[in-house]
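Page header: ASSEMBLY MODEL / four components / 364 residues total.
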Amino acid sequence: MQTRESNAVDTAGRIMDVAERLIRTGGYDAFSFREIATELGIKSASVHYHYATKADLVAAVAKRYTDRFIDALGDNSGDPEHMIDHFIANYRASVAHENLMCLCGMLGAEIARIPPSVADHVIQFFHQNLEWIRPVLARRGDPDPYASAYALVAALEGGLLLARSIGSLVPFDAAARQARRL
Amino acid sequence: MQTRESNAVDTAGRIMDVAERLIRTGGYDAFSFREIATELGIKSASVHYHYATKADLVAAVAKRYTDRFIDALGDNSGDPEHMIDHFIANYRASVAHENLMCLCGMLGAEIARIPPSVADHVIQFFHQNLEWIRPVLARRGDPDPYASAYALVAALEGGLLLARSIGSLVPFDAAARQARRL
DNA sequence: ACTTGCCTATCTATCAGTAGGTAGGCAACA
DNA sequence: TGTTGCCTACCTACTGATAGATAGGCAAGT
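Prediction written out in full:
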């Protein structure tokens, strides 16, 4: 047998990589263990070794996605205008770089059909995003930062959805510009 | 055999009714011909009699949904403020009355995975919506009605998505109010 | 040094269930 | 008689999931 450079962490991570891309393309029901396995050159039983059930896998993907997203946002204590642009840019990258939907936007649309363990992570994603942007909007002098945070996140998720549907970034940029107005 | 009151039109329509609800709950891959058939008390082969393929069925559902939606919007030549409220109300009813996503919002998220015949209808839905609201915004004195139409539709679709995820209408109303500002 | 024992990561093979789809029949109706 | 609408019965392909085997690594005990 050849020297093996892979290990459990690598394979488990690669499985999540493929799963994330497939979910962000077609949603929870639009991928299978076999599809992931084939793409990685392993067997579906090996995917089950790392993630016992589909719910487990998607929950792990959702948790990693949320953690990375919040981590990429970083500290929210800088200049509000710059922070808002930074927030928007993180959403924009989703569709701009790989033409993918936000993972939790996709799963959020399917929230009534996905396993509760996955839904919990999706809800957490939105709460953490809202809590990141709300104080920024408040510092900017927004009279109702709660409502404006909801409005901004909704506009960005809808902007991603519309941009992918129409096949152009114009709707996203229009939605983002409108929603960031004071 | 009992007296049969059903006919082709009724069954075909009922099939679309069930399909529409299931798609708006979980998306294209989250329902089956068997699920529809069972709910209607018929067999999956009978569903195939009315709609040869899944793509045919979903395309028919998307077309009917778009036609009904545009029909419900009606004439757009009235008072702009009232027309905008009316436009928003049509989206709001989606989640408010049955806790369902907009059909084309759901399919739009999955646009990269659904059959082209379905995707065409989804794109048509958005174009028709944009063309309905754009002149309204223009009459209202909007300096960039194209961008504002994109922003409004994006906000409403995102509002639906977020409202269903969070389990509250507050995000939708916040997004709608923000996006309708001049 | 060697053996024992457990762990990791993968495999083959298989399961029951469900997917979309098809062929042919049968009864009601125009 | 021909068409409509639904049926039974079936197909192939694929789903998530499981069982059992295997090969290699690591570490403690002798």
